[in-house]
Design brief:
Shape: globular
Strand content: 15-25%
Structural class: alpha/beta
Distance between the termini: 88 Å
Number of helices: 16
Helix content: 25-40%
Low-confidence stretches: none
Radius of gyration: 23 Å
């Protein structure tokens, strides 16, 4: 790729069909100086502009992965997909922005953790990125730093864990305070919804019974443990009158809780992930320990093989909103830390490279999603929820030059031998999927074209996100409508006898 020429004269993507969330139309797209300059037919562009033929293909907004953990320190080791490998895998699959997580240890400053994560990511990223920040403990200092992060660091989302007892788990009271602070600063409260006390008890029970393999992970945290916590998180957020985002919805029970809450008018968003849409938890009963351990994540993949299609249908009808991956990868020797105790297997799977193809295969090819739905659930919905739309998630003049030439008819077989992750395992191994990124353009540069990477570490930029995004629209009105003072009874004070307590 002649990046010097494309940066000087721009890139013309011609002959394709542009697909946005709201419409699909024939048009050429001209990009220059990291922005989309024009969308239409017979565009007037420099003769020296680099031309990329999209005839017969779709031109879509670059994907946005809402949920990743690159080089995350976890369970005694560090995820092997760092910000270089993770973002290389991303653009190879058509994703041009990811939102990773800053996760402080208990007692650690949120600001210090943010600075450390930013320093790790900045020199390595091959596409744009942003951060959510986890609230893993509570104090006045945490509350103050949440304000600084939203005002000065471009953070508009904070994650709370109901699981990982004695590590990240918050109490209900701490969650109430966290949601209240999120509401004050205009940030979206996100929740890992599993009942951590029941999970801990389940783990001890399985180990006492002599169940030490990966199947014990599944058996210790069944579906109702996820569903109960999902319900509780939604109730807490609703009582505070704050929006709530449930990360990695992995079961029918949890999805039903999200769906029911939305039908009741509660402000809640549900995020399925590529793993839950593409595979199931039966793999954890595989006779080969490494294979089984490769599918260990939390909440777990469910052994019911019908969950995949169920979640896709919920995505299609809007009960679930956008697709992440929870990409957090560990090699064989790292997973083997739990060879004698499933509770010590580092939790995490891949997904960022295959997310778009999994959604296309399981959603569009199956007839559950339209092309426009595909764009909505892989890009635009995320851009709106996290307040980077129309900068991201849209092909239009003025938007960032993040776009993909998408071949919906082409197919490929997913394999660890050909993927661009650092990990030595792929949970989608051997799966044939339709939908292939022919060309990926990030910040106006071609970073992936016809099976080859043209990435540069440090090319990506941190994307700050403003607070009080669209998800907060109407919150003040709801606050006024639900004001309990309107139900207060003005009555004459009681002046009768009062019992005496000895």
């Amino acid at each position: 790729m002649n990046k010097e020429q494309s940066r000087q004269y721009g890139i013309l993507v011609h002959g394709g069909t542009v697909v946005n969330e709201d419409r699909e139309f024939k048009a050429d797209v001209y990009v220059k100086d990291e922005k989309i300059v024009a969308v239409g037919e017979n565009l007037d562009v420099p003769a020296e502009a680099v031309r990329v033929d999209a005839t017969g293909h779709y031109v879509i907004p670059g994907g946005i992965d809402t949920h990743t953990h690159m080089e995350m320190p976890f369970m005694g080791t560090v995820a092997v997909d760092d910000y270089n490998y993770g973002t290389r895998a991303a653009v190879a699959g058509g994703t041009t922005m990811l939102i990773d997580f800053v996760i402080p240890q208990k007692g650690e400053s949120l600001l210090a953790a943010y600075d450390a994560w930013l320093a790790r990511a900045t020199p390595k990223v091959n596409c744009d990125y942003s951060f959510h920040v986890a609230v893993t403990w509570w104090s006045e200092k945490v509350s103050e730093e949440m304000g600084v992060l939203t005002r000065e660091r471009g953070i508009n989302s904070f994650k709370m864990f109901m699981a990982y007892k004695n590590v990240f788990q918050l109490t209900d009271e701490e969650m109430i305070q966290s949601f209240k602070r999120c509401k004050e600063v205009g940030a979206l409260g996100m929740v890992h919804a599993e009942n951590g006390d029941l999970v801990h008890d389940g783990q001890e029970k399985m180990l006492e019974m002599g169940i030490t393999g990966p199947e014990g992970h599944m058996l210790s945290r069944p579906e109702d443990v996820e569903a109960e916590a999902t319900h509780r998180a939604i109730v807490i957020a609703d009582r505070v009158n704050a929006p709530c985002y449930i990360v990695h919805v992995m079961s029918k029970g949890a999805a039903h809780e999200v769906s029911r809450a939305r039908r009741e008018g509660k402000r809640v968003i549900g995020e399925p992930i590529a793993a839950g849409l593409g595979v199931d938890g039966t793999h954890c009963w595989h006779s080969d320990w490494r294979h089984a351990a490769g599918y260990v994540m939390g909440p777990p993949l469910r052994p019911d093989p019908t969950v995949k299609e169920f979640l896709m249908k919920m995505l299609a009808n809007g009960d679930l909103s956008c697709v992440g991956t929870d990409n957090c990868t560990f090699n064989s020797d790292q997973k083997a830390l739990g060879k004698d105790n499933f509770a010590k297997i580092p939790n995490g799977v891949n997904g960022i490279e295959d997310r778009m193809s999994i959604v296309w295969e399981k959603g569009v090819v199956s007839g559950l999603l339209t092309n426009r739905d595909f764009v909505r659930v892989t890009s635009t919905a995320a851009a709106k929820i996290f307040n980077v739309y129309p900068r991201k998630g849209l092909i239009a003049a003025g938007s960032d030059a993040d776009l993909v030439i998408w071949d919906g008819k082409a197919s490929r077989v997913i394999s660890k031998d050909t993927h661009h992750h650092a990990v030595d395992f792929n949970i989608f191994e051997g799966m044939q999927v339709h939908g292939v990124a022919r060309t990926t353009i990030s910040r106006g540069d071609i970073v992936w074209h016809e099976g080859k990477l043209y990435t540069e570490q440090g090319h990506g930029r941190y994307i700050p996100r403003q607070p009080f995004g669209p998800i907060f629209e109407g919150i003040d009105t709801r606050e006024d409508a639900r004001n309990e003072l309107k139900l207060k009874v003005d009555r004459k004070p009681y002046d009768g006898p009062v019992a005496k307590i000895e």
